[in-house]
Amino acid sequence: MIEVIVILSVFIFIAALVIIYFLVSRNLKSYKIKIDEAEFLLNELLNEKYELLNSTKEIITKKTDINHKVFTNLKSIKKQNISTFDFDKKLVENYDLIKKIKDDYSEISKNQEFNKIGKDIYNLDEKLEATKTFYNKYVEVLNNLINKFPIKIVAKTQRLEEKKCYEIR
Fold this sequence. Notes:
Elements: H1 2-63, H2 72-77, H3 84-104, H4 106-109, H5 112-146, H6 151-157
């Protein structure tokens, strides 16, 4: 009789571990899916911002005496194999440069197309910041979870690693 109880107890213990594993695994996967969706959206928005910055660059070089060489950093971004974090930083640097040029050249600020693109970039930045906030929220939760025992074991079996957060302006 004791043998049956021991076998039954071991079976229940193993079943409980399997259930816990699958529940934790499902939870981790849901966070990973949210992070992946945010990464995809961030990539799309950053590429859109890149195109808008290129458009403003063209207007600036046509309407002012500023040379294309000022924007060599912008031109070379796509050719580099960089992370979305670095891509974002470089786009911010170029946008700051464009804002300085706008302040220094009054004829630029009078250009309707330039102003429309500026509004588009502003709206895009709003979406970027919201998406970064969403991304960071779930990255922080996932990072905290995968550093706790026994979740850490489940995370390792799924090859989940800590992720980096975006800087929010």
